[in-house]
Design goal:
241 residues; mainly alpha; Four Helix Bundle (Hemerythrin (Met), subunit A); 4 helices; 0% strand
């Protein structure tokens, strides 16, 4: 006893639904791969941002230390009468100055903006202070420490205050730029997370539809088998009558 075949029209509609579901699943798979790739890139961006922030802040802290060292040692030089100590302090001041240039290059930003302006302002004020510092050193080496002290009080101290203010501005602008980049990365991370959640939700919908189609097909096959069996029984009953 062979079950009656399911009408072709019904099978074609089911086949079209299954094909559409398969296409949707393939699209979801491709989208999920793109999302995973973007998440990996975003993680690399976060790691690179962290390294840049650490390097930048380390360079700025180094600038603060070395500029203070230039200032501290020259103050020692103008407040001592020992010529040997004066020469030692002058050498220390120049050594600290030599460390500022590479640190200044390390702190250069990768893009233009307020940070670049602050760095340019710091370099300008630093060069101005060094010119005054060199005049103070010349006075010391000529044995005129009092003139060096007077020049420092009149010009050196205000000039170094401007250097210190520019360093504060540099650090503030660098931190502001870093905070802006962090917010952008966080926003991108949230967007990627929402996309991933959407893909997972649609995947669950596809699974539910697939299960429903399978159950519907099984129920349809069972129904037609029961109808066919009932028709056979009716034919047998008619024949017996």
């Amino acid at each position: 006893m062979t079950p009656a075949p399911v009408p072709a029209g019904r099978w074609s509609s089911r086949a079209r639904a299954a094909a559409a579901l398969a296409g949707l699943a393939a699209g979801l798979l491709a989208t999920s791969l793109f999302v995973v790739r973007d998440l990996a890139r975003n993680n690399e961006t976060v790691a690179e941002l962290s390294r840049n922030v650490v390097r930048g802040l380390d360079s700025i802290e180094g600038l603060q230390f070395d500029t203070q060292e230039v200032r501290r040692t020259i103050l020692y030089a103008v407040t001592t009468d020992d010529a040997n100590l004066q020469l030692g302090y002058v050498d220390q001041s120049r050594a600290a100055e030599a460390r500022v240039a590479p640190r200044l290059n390390q702190a250069l930003p990768s893009s233009a903006g307020s940070e670049a302006a602050s760095l340019e302002g710091f370099a300008r004020e630093w060069r101005a202070y060094l010119g005054i510092r060199d005049d103070i050193i010349a006075a010391i080496l000529e044995g005129n420490a009092k003139e060096g002290v007077a020049r420092d009080l009149r010009d050196g101290a205000p000039a170094f205050d401007r250097v210190r203010d520019q360093l504060r501005a540099l650090k503030a602008s660098f931190q502001q730029q870093a905070e802006t980049q962090v917010r952008e990365v966080e926003q991108r991370s949230r967007l990627l997370l929402y996309r991933l959640l959407a893909v997972l939700l649609l995947a669950q919908v596809c699974i539910g539809l697939a299960v429903w189609l399978v159950q519907k097909r099984q129920a349809l096959v069972a129904l037609h088998a029961a109808e066919a069996e009932s028709a056979v029984l009716r034919n047998v009953a008619k024949t017996a009558a």
